[in-house]
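Protein chain data
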Amino acid sequence: MAMAKAPLLERDQTHETRCECGQLIAKVCGQGLELKCKRCKRIVVIPFSSIEGWGTAST
């Protein structure tokens, strides 16, 4: 059974980043970046405020 891929525009609207193989890498949520541990399946949220350079424009 072939796996259908969502159109690029549709994926951008969900704020998810996926590998070319389709594996979810990260998701942007209201609080920060959401990552899921592949080993224990826990979801970890990294707050935007703790990411250096987040929200700053390069000059």
